[in-house]
Amino acid sequence: MKIRLEKTRIPNHLLEYFETDLCSSCYVCHTLLWAKEAWRVLENDGILFLNIADSYAGGGKGNYGSGISSSVKAKQNPKGNDFNYGNIPSKCQLLIPHRVAIALIDAGWVLRNTICWFKSNAMPESVTDRFSKKYEYIFMFSKQEKYYFDLDAIREPHKEVSLERIKGTWNGHREEMSSYKNMDISKMCHPLGKNPGDVWIIPTRPSPEKHYAMWPEQLVERMVKCSTKAGDSVLDPFCGSGSTLKVAEQLNRKGIGIDLGYHEMSKRRTGKIQKQLFV
Asked: Is residue 103 a contact partner of residue 128, using CB atoms and an 8 Å limit?
């Protein structure tokens, strides 16, 4: 998330949202609370990437009402059963990412992309009555319609099969095989590559660090490259092991991280960084 450190003016249409007393017992409401501060420090042309995994009701953890205090839980569920927010039946997928996204849209954020992060080496699950989860959502939010986005920085090479297919077509008309050599592919394909699309096939990476949900650096690199320029500040309000900070520094950005734990791990991983040279 590219940030500005000076105070940002809050638009009038968001004042009511910012002044509302939100409960802290619900995950969605808790997200809205910190999202207020994210809005405040984010550059007007900046982007917020938000990664949220989903969960199921009745599992004892990760529920829609997860994060509530034991006293509140006892009052709302005196029998001590698994907390079930809003009468959602047990084992039902909660769609927490979607609930958060809709709440942020209602609060004034502009949702530009719903990205599917497909983890080809996702952790196996022991479930036998549904399919195991292989992906997570990454939402790309902006504060306004116009924002900084550098697609060229993250383009991917065209596949050879795609180039061959295009060679056989010119303005929608099939050409003879003998004329392939006369085709100017640059007029039909961007010379820097293709748009990577909204399905990112990026495997997780093994690490000796004791952190069960470390972001792969390749994932962070794509987000940082497309949304910032060299010299910009990148904020990760839940920086954990410091992957975002490490990648930001490597790409000549200023990485700023906030977290309640993992300080030594983050410090260790960002202590020695080889920055990339740009010609």
From this structure: no
Pairing of strands 233-236, 254-257: parallel
Distance CA 2, CA 254 (A): 10
- DSSP H/E element including 242: none
How far is Cα 242 from Cα 210, in angstroms, rounded to an integer?
13
Reply yes or no on whether the pLDDT at 238 is more than 70: yes
The pLDDT of residue 49: 97
Give the residue-averaged pLDDT of 235-261: 86
Which residue, among 111, 135, 103, has the nearest Cα to 34 in the 3D structure?
A: 103
Concatenate the DSSP letters of all residues of 145-206 into one string. S-----GGGG-BPPPHHHHHHHHTEETTEE--GGGGGG--GGGTS-TT-B---SEEE-----
Determine whether 1 is exposed, middle or buried from the number of CB atoms within 10 Å of its CB (0-12, 13-18, 19+): buried
